[in-house]
What does this fold into?
Amino acid sequence: AYDLTGLAGLYRDQKTHPQAEKLFKRALAIREKILGPDHPSVADALHDLAWLYREQAKFAEAEPLFKRTLAIREKALGPDHPSVADALVGLAVLYQDQKLMAAPEPLLKRALAIREKALGPDHPLVADALYDLARFYAQEKFGKAEPLYKRALAIREKILGPDHPSVAWILENLAVICHNTGRLKDEEGYKSRAAAIRAKIP
It folds into this structure.
């Protein structure tokens, strides 16, 4: 099943979705048969298939898989396990894709809290959770988004270095917030720094 999952991931990366779906489904069926329907490895297979459907905007197919992933992980691993946070983020992103604007916030906040508690405040996955929540707020709540972006930026700079591409992503998002709040000098500063990082990328 793990070899099938790896091959399915390659097909997904190549946007060959029908082949990826077939292999992900086979991997899921094998794990359910051998391990039972409530095993964490079954949840992993469900999560892979859910993300594949989400990438294709097959929201009705993806949602129950994300929910089942979440339920299995909460039961098998406990409600505060980092893998539960991963499932929460997947479900939140799915709701954002569908413009269900009230639904993602509590999921993203819970994912952030889980990762901070389990991994510590300066872990890369905490930076990812801060970034996800900031992007949600950046649609209209700029004042809430900016400090989250800045905290994610500080973590990524510390762990990955000041010239990492993921640092540039946050700088560009901060530039957008500055633009939307009329701080053009700050906007240019973030843009210039992001451009300098991208110029160094091979």
Notes: Residues 17-35 form the longest helix (19 residues). The chain has ten helices and no strands.
